[in-house]
Amino acid sequence: MPIPYAIRPGDTLSRLARLHTISLGQLLALNPQIEDPDLIRVGEMILVPDGGPAPAPVLAEENDPSQDPLWLKIARREMGVAETPGPEHTLRVLEYLAVCSKTDPALRSRDETPWCSAFVCWVMEQAGHESPRTAWARTWFDRDWGEEEPMGDPRRGSITVFRRGMGGHVGFLIEDLGDRVAVLGGNQANKVKISNYPKLGDHYELLGYRWPV
After folding, report:
1. Ramachandran area for residue 115 (φ above 0: left; ψ -120 to 50: alpha; else beta)
2. Pairing between strand 45-49 and 2-6?
3. CA–CA separation, 132 vs 177, rounded Å?
4. Are strands 167-176 and 147-149 parallel, antiparallel or unpaired?
5. Strand pairing partners for 188?
6. Residues 141, 158: contact at Cβ < 8 Å?
7. Which of 19, 72, 93, 96 is the residue whose CA sits 20 to 30 A from 79?
8. Nearest-angstrom CA–CA distance, 108 and 102
9. How far is CA 201 from the centre of its chain?
């Protein structure tokens, strides 16, 4: 019989499903109130199977947001910023794009322009670090920005770069989930949010992680 469980810092639904030896789909079936599996909040009550292993204690140095690097704290504060449908544009998104001085000004004037890299550029400069100042996501990897993080043990907050077709995607690492990674980024479903991406899938390929020098 399902029992209630309060979401803790660092929890993801994928992690909780693994701990209780069920699939993510089965966990979501127990919790039909969850509209977005990538968006759960600390303290939120969900149902988990009774009799399964208790979730492992949360290690403060790994999962406590107060231990996050400054840029990740800044990025968290932007969560929920979204594009404006139609001809209007979200001012905050245009502020992200304005940092991209190496990108065509016409593209920087509308929030329909892919803005994942612009968001990372803006966040890093808010935190006092230089950025590539371009909306081209793979620049973070192709031009060897910063230092390379080990693929097997990246730090939380690492800049995470994907290939996506001829283009790419970039955001900040929240958690390594095995064959997927949880990433906080911009232009994820047209907003700033945490989403899970495959390390190698039909549309995405994880290229690597970067850390500012």
Report:
1. alpha
2. antiparallel
3. 28
4. unpaired
5. 191
6. no
7. 19
8. 10
9. 17
DSSP label at 169? E
Residues 51-77 as b/e (b if ≥16 CB within 10 A, e otherwise) read eeeebeeeeeeebeeeebbebbebbbe
Q: Which two tokens stand for residue 183?
A: 């990433």
Side chain identity, residue 184: L
User: pTM for the complete prediction?
Assistant: 0.70
Per-residue pLDDT of the chain in tens (213 residues, 90 and over written 9): 788 887 877 778 888 888 878 888 888 889 888 888 888 887 788 888 875 544 444 443 445 566 889 999 999 999 999 998 888 899 999 999 999 998 888 888 888 899 999 999 999 999 999 999 999 999 999 777 899 999 988 999 999 999 998 899 999 999 998 899 999 999 999 999 999 999 998 889 999 999 998
Provide the H-helix boundaries in 112-172.
116-126, 139-142
